[in-house]
Amino acid sequence: MTEDLIYIYDLSPVLRRTINMKWQEFWNKQVCNKLHVVKTNLGKSTHHLSDRLQDVLRCRMRIGHTPLTHGYLLRRDDQPQCSHCGVEISITHILITCPLHEDHRQRL
């Protein structure tokens, strides 16, 4: 009779896997979420706490939320324009498309 008992620590891994699978399924449906681009698979972070600042900065760059590109919202200003091209400033524009920075990109 006692061998028929299921202990909570026996169920814990099964429950954890099931919850993580459901959470991942929900996350996979969030394709319009900017953070989905940064982290498509949920789970334990591979980064150490000491790298947190770098992780935050990388995440902000990936989703395009930086003081340069979004600071105007907090200041209630107009969206900044590229002084060279006249288009709205974005991370993609600065790092990939703006001809003004082509020389810097070539050196990388």
Automatic annotation (TrEMBL):
Official protein name in the record: Reverse transcriptase zinc-binding domain-containing protein
Organism of derivation: Ornithodoros erraticus (European soft tick)
